[in-house]
Amino acid sequence: MVTPFGLPPARGRECCSCPLGPGCFPGSLEAVNLRELEGLIEHTAPAYAGSFLFRQGDRFEHIAVIRLGTVKTYAIDREGREQTTGFHMPGDFIGLSAIDDGRHPCNAVALDTVTLCRLPFRATADLAARMPMLQAKLFRLMSRDIARATRLSCNNAADERLAAFLIGMADRMAAQGYSSRRWQLTMSRMDIANYLRLAPETLSRLLRRFQAEGLVSVDGREVEVRGRERLQALAALEPARVACADQARSEAA
Amino acid sequence: MVTPFGLPPARGRECCSCPLGPGCFPGSLEAVNLRELEGLIEHTAPAYAGSFLFRQGDRFEHIAVIRLGTVKTYAIDREGREQTTGFHMPGDFIGLSAIDDGRHPCNAVALDTVTLCRLPFRATADLAARMPMLQAKLFRLMSRDIARATRLSCNNAADERLAAFLIGMADRMAAQGYSSRRWQLTMSRMDIANYLRLAPETLSRLLRRFQAEGLVSVDGREVEVRGRERLQALAALEPARVACADQARSEAA
DNA sequence: CGGAAAGTTGAGTGGGATCAAGCCGCGTGG
DNA sequence: CCACGCGGCTTGATCCCACTCAACTTTCCG
């Protein structure tokens, strides 16, 4: 069970104790603040596949942590075209992109049965001012989303993007305690294709090629990773680790 | 002159008073906190074209506000390919993507003479806990970067991306008090092409086409926007504003 | 003035989109 | 039970946009 702030579930009750992902608060926590945080959490009824968690243009009030299920976020441009901007899984936060202008810039829809914890953002920010760990966690979360979105916009070649997607899924499944070798996709081919900026036909052919090359084995929504290393090599996802990067900060060209 | 937190320059001195962009703190400010904020600001010597502000892999210590000049950020993947991830201008913050893992995921290089204010992040975050406006500003800044990076990863067609780039530049020039109709590019064609995920040749041809269609007039690095409306229409940049978006939050499929 | 880098132009190629058809799983209803 | 229809997915054929390669021009800077 994913608890919103990575704390072990509160002793004595099975309910979510705190909304920010495993290993968030490694040190000691002031019990008072923690209880305050718990008090902010709004438990919502499960959302079923196809239901919207928020819509593009909605006023922003809450951020939310996914506890169970998969959420797809997508934007619709003024031509009416849909663009999937992300798949979100347990432990992920959604809604962070709406803080700035107070309106959600995208739709969030449940792909399967989703339960989440909602946190009124204003109150959470107020609490963060008194709870350094919480503030730091929020900064890190948002920073990670910036870096992730930036990486996504790079990966140019189709096969690299697909490889990055598969590796990313594998790692996220592992983070949830599932097998990183074999798992079940919760999204359709069309969703994946759209997310990777590919035509569904192209994705289908790519998957077939990956399978022929022994990288993966795909049957419907069942995926098995066979060539993790080669797949990871294909995904130029991770930026190159630069050796001796701590040298001179500034130098003339 | 851009002051880091949008305050008018401190009376009596021309130096930067506060590092977060125009209109940041609309309400009253506690003078004590403000002075503390000013105390955190590190004034650095101007960086000249080609010099690095930070490098991929560098330890993250500071965020920085650009006061003058243009900064290019780019990542290098493990194939050695360069990918420009953004152009940053006065008032913009750089370094926010590094908070999460404590290392910069990209290089930042000055395209012309750049002056910036550096803020030790740890201390700034501590102060933010006592200065709600500052904390809110940081959240908004990061949120905006998430939304921006997400939008960038969409815009698929080459001409749409170029149009979005031009409109974005025009608006940012206007925000700095320059003409939004006619201005000077600070980055090379190669940089722009790389940013837009195009070959330099393709960009050259596209610009020529835009010029033939009367959208812009380009001469070297001098740009004049002639068809703002058509350009804006081409750039599917802004997501469609959804009417009556405040309806039911959740609905079954 | 000369060399190098940046930018433009032209010709040819290829990767991914598009168009079109077929397959398959599934629910519905006769 | 099967016929039917629908949507998701795959396969094939063709097309086109953007990339590549190559040559040339311009600009920059010594």
Write the topology of this structure.
2 copies of one chain form a homodimer.
Chain A: H1 31-40, E1 42-43, E2 52-54, E3 62-68, E4 71-76, E5 82-88, E6 93-94, E7 107-110, E8 115-120, H2 121-130, H3 132-154, H4 158-175, E9 182-184, H5 189-195, H6 200-212, E10 216-219, E11 222-225, H7 228-234
Antiparallel strand pairs in A: 1-8, 2-7, 3-6, 3-8, 4-5, 4-7, 9-11, 10-11
The first copy, chain A, binds a DNA duplex (30 and 30 nucleotides) through residues 157-158, 188-190, 198-202, 204-205, 208, 220.
The Rg value of chain A, from CA coordinates, equals 20 Å
What is the typical, i.e. mean, pLDDT of chain A?
A: 85
Record field, number of beta strands of chain A: 11
Percent helix of chain A? 25-40%
Span between termini of chain A: 52 Å
In the residues of chain A, how many domains can be counted? Answer: 2
Shape of chain A: globular
For the record, what CATH class of the largest domain in chain A applies? Mainly Beta
Number of helices of chain A: 7
Widest β-sheet, arrangement of strands of chain A: 1-8-3-6
Task: Sketch the topology of chain A as an H/E string, one letter per element.
Answer: HEEEEEEEEHHHEHHEEH
| Beta content of chain A | 15-25%
Largest sheet of chain A: 4 strands, antiparallel
Low-confidence stretches of chain A: 7-18, 240-253
Q: Quick one: which chains have the greatest interface?
A: A-B, 73 and 73 residues
Oligomer: homodimer
CATH superfamily of the largest domain in chain A: Jelly Rolls
* CATH architectural arrangement of the largest domain in chain A: Sandwich
Structural class call of chain A reads: alpha+beta
CATH topology of the largest domain in chain A: Jelly Rolls
